[in-house]
Amino acid sequence: MSGALAITQDQQEFSEQQLAALTQLGVTNASKGDLALFFNQAQRTGLDPFSRQIYMIGRYSSRDRAYKQTIQVGIDGFRQIAHKTAKQCGETFGMEDTLWADNKGRWHDLWLGNVPPAAAKVTVLRNGQRFSAVAVFNEYAGFTKDGELTSMWASKPALMIAKCAEAAALRKAFPADLSGLYTADEMSQADNEAQPPTPVVIDPTVPPTMHQKPPKMTPPPQAQPELGEDKLLNRYRQMMSTILQESGVTSKQTAGAVLSLLVGRTVAATADMSRDELKPLIENGSHTAARVREFVQQTNQEAAKQADTTPDEDVIQGEIINDKEEE
């Protein structure tokens, strides 16, 4: 940072000129407390808020029905802070190769699959100590209102989830420098929340009855599915089918049996399952896959055991023929 906008070490808060610049950059609806926290983080990390190395964004919370400010840093900012801190402390710093997990919980050091990885794992090395973090894809991925993955998450799923795992691992390794800071990639799920209701603008010079016609007294409409619900349901069904196939399910009969076990009621296929039934199974894909594999293994063992105890048909026929010859 340089010039009139530079934050000095003896400065206590943003100046009027700095606040004006932040407003131009989109920092709005922030309380004095939010701004004080933002100032402290920028000063502590040495990142420049005016070049957006560190920035604050307001997100609407449908639960609280209000905007909440979140301080975010790019993954490059996290790396810069980590390198700077390690150098100042005379410590070694590095990272192991990134790993990605499939739906069976197996780790790979290269992801070339046509489907997103189930998770990513990053391990940070600081002065001989290891700090690992795992980021599960469904806990971080951003979705559109139609239930589709957002552009970056759809085109670069392995990279996006790896950056989330790296940010979490760096926070573990450098808590004094990175606590309370998050990357935009980690906050993609927060953007999935509902947007604030559009305010109704009323002209005070016009009588209330002139703003709009009285509403017609009509029966309330029947509940309609949310926008994109069908697409989201189909996506869940496809993902569940993938888990079944990768876990060794090879027949419709076995699929129906294991799905019935998972949901606690009789179903023949994923088409018989609701979104509420599918969602927890998909979000806990590794656990679901483990249960499916266990079921398939038990089924195969029982089938093999039954085959060993069933008399061979040729032997039975031969015994009957021999008996007749003896007669």
Tell me what you see in this structure:
The chain has three domains: 10-73, no CATH class; 76-175, no CATH class; 229-309, no CATH class. Helices cover 46% and strands 12% of the residues. The protein has helices at residues 16-24, 32-45, 75-89, 137-140, 151-155, 157-173, 175-178, 208-211, 229-246, 252-263, 275-283, 285-309, 313-326; strands at residues 54-61, 66-73, 93-95, 99-101, 107-108, 119-126, 129-136. The strands form two sheets. Strands 3, 4, 5, 6 and 7 form a five-stranded antiparallel beta sheet that branches. A hairpin with a 5-residue loop joins strand 4 and strand 5. The relative contact order is 0.09. Residues 194-227 and 313-327 have low confidence and may be disordered. Residues 299-309 have a biased composition (Polar residues). One of its GO terms (biological process) is DNA recombination. InterPro entries: Phage_lambda_Bet, RecT_fam.
Distance between the termini: 108 Å
The chain-level structural class is alpha+beta
β-sheet strand percentage: 5-15%
Q: Count every helix, treating DSSP H or I runs of 4 or more residues as helices.
A: 13
In terms of per-residue confidence, which ranges show pLDDT below 50 for 5 or more consecutive residues? Answer: 194-227, 313-327
Number of domains: 3
Radius of gyration: 29 Å
- Principal-axis shape: elongated
Oligomer state of the chains in this structure: single chain
Q: How many strands in all?
A: 7
Average pLDDT: 80
Order of helices and strands: HHEEHEEEEEHHHHHHHHHH
Q: Biggest β-sheet: count, sense, barrel? A: 5 strands, antiparallel
Give the fraction of residues assigned to helices.
Answer: 40-55%
